[in-house]
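User: Hey, quick favor. My workstation is busy. Could you predict this chain's structure for me?
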Amino acid sequence: MNADVVPVNRVRDEVPETGRIGSWKEAEDQFRAAMAVAAAHPVDVWLADAEFAHWPLGERAVMEAWHQWAVAGGRKRLTMLGGRYDDMARRHPRWVAWRATWSHRIVCREAPDGLRDEVRPVLIVGDDLALRIQDALHGTGLWTRDIARIREWRAELDVILQRSSEALPPTTLGL
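Assistant: No problem, here it is.
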């Protein structure tokens, strides 16, 4: 694991406020660490991406973190904003199955056509931690614990969320 990965077991004051993410591998490591934080201290979570192709949503360890978050989180919610959800079932089948069980706590929204290019890869864990990919091709970006920056990123998501529509139904109806 990269030395810059956010330490999960440290007190907030002992870790830097912001750090760089240098590749998709580092972004995946940061995502796993952030999910461990969410599992240990359940808060509302926001996750956005055009296609969710690079996030390790369905890995066993991440699925365990999702489950711990859901069980301990009470009324906490996961809000997802995607450009498209076409490949979710193929890329992340464990996560999609888990989502069906917890659909009352998970909101999946799809950006309208005109705003799909504006959906940046970002994970926000309450006001505690956020990851944002600036260059989706290389996976470079930032992670932060700066509350002002986290709220700014969440406000940017909210602008698109207000114009989005429901997506990724938890069950498929049919005969």
